[in-house]
Amino acid sequence: MGILRLLSRISHFFHSHRADMIKDIRIPSLKENGKADSSVFEIEHWFDMVCARNNSEDDVKAFMVQQLDWYKNDVGFRHEYLVATINGPNNEKAFLRFERRSTSEQLKKAQLDNVVGGKRMTDAERKAAVAAYEEEQRLINAAKTPYIGSGPSKVQPSSSSMSSSPDSNFRAADHVVHVRNPLMLNDNPADKAYLMTTYADFENPLSLRDLAVIVHEVSKESPRYNAITEQCYWLVRTVVGVATELYGPKEVTNTDKADRAGRFIFTSVNRDILIEIGKFVKMVVESIEADNKRIVESYEDGKGGRLKEKQRADEAEARAEAAVARAEAMEEELQLARYR
Fold first, then answer.
1. Which of 66, 83, 212, 300 has the most CB atoms in a 10 Å sphere around its CB?
2. Could you give the CA distance from residue 248 to residue 119 in angstroms, rounded to a whole number?
3. In the chain, how many H helices and how many E strands?
4. Bias regions of kind Low complexity — which residues (predicted)?
């Protein structure tokens, strides 16, 4: 599918509903006249739309991240996800939910060992894992599920990937959804979650564009899904780690359940790896610098160029008028001198 056709299809999803306060392709539109959450978008496609709409510094500043909230489900795989509260140009607010799951089709067909990457478990752990796995399948098969199977279910090994789980080649489903309620999707109680940690009052302003770059870089560099190493916990932890390193939230509020982050059946499924965060920080900074350069070039070729041309024309006209005024003044002085 050509990129223009793809962008056109995605744009249709964004603009097909008119009840939203925010009408911008960077914020997926709510459905059913604002009574249902938006369609599910793959991170890669949403990232393309964010970049396509940002063609000036003002465009980048139009949508800013007010805070990041880290949530966790209490059923199934104890799914974790991130919700960004976005402030728009007219002080509108939107909640964008970012998450990683196994695609629905592969999870329906997979054996537990395929999903956890051959992790050795005790009998008690395996029993708990099987129960969680079956619950996760029920959630995905539910009528209100937003978790669609899209794209290939497997990925090819990549030399650029940071994946630490060569025993898993299941494709991760990395999604963004515009939700009405950060606690659940489409008012579905089966998806209800609890808040663990909030990050707010960023020392360096965090734009939606910058958040999109962070999520996109993390997603594309580890496209595999593994329930032990590269799952929802890993995606949220890594995105939060990069955002914290680069933008310095001055307010970090932990609830009494914050210590559950990254915990599943095993004592700890995921933990911070400073070297990994450092690698992503470097990639994000480089990507933002490249996009800033693109924006400057786009602005100068478009609106910025036209404004500069008009400014140059106005300045030339002003200089011409000033020259005429000086000439007239000199002529007047000469005439006065003749009569003295």
1. 212
2. 35
3. 10, 8
4. 150-168
Going residue by residue through the chain (340 aa), what tens digit of pLDDT does each one get? Answer: 455 455 445 444 444 433 345 789 999 999 998 999 999 999 999 999 999 999 899 999 999 999 999 999 887 778 899 999 999 998 999 999 999 876 655 565 555 555 555 566 778 777 777 777 777 667 666 544 554 444 444 433 333 444 444 444 566 788 999 999 999 988 888 788 999 999 999 999 999 999 999 999 999 887 565 554 447 888 999 999 999 999 999 999 999 999 888 776 655 555 566 678 999 999 999 999 999 999 998 877 765 556 665 666 677 667 767 776 777 777 677 667 666 6
Name the strand (E) or helix (H) holding 298: helix 274-301
Give the long-range contacts of residues 180-184, CB within 8 A, separation 24 or more: 180/30, 180/34, 180/36, 180/37, 180/95, 181/95, 182/69, 182/71, 182/83, 182/95, 182/97, 183/71
pTM here?
0.73
Q: How far apart are CA 29 and CA 168, in angstroms?
A: 34
DSSP string for residues in 68-97: EEEEEESSTTT-EEEEEEEE-TTS-EEEEE
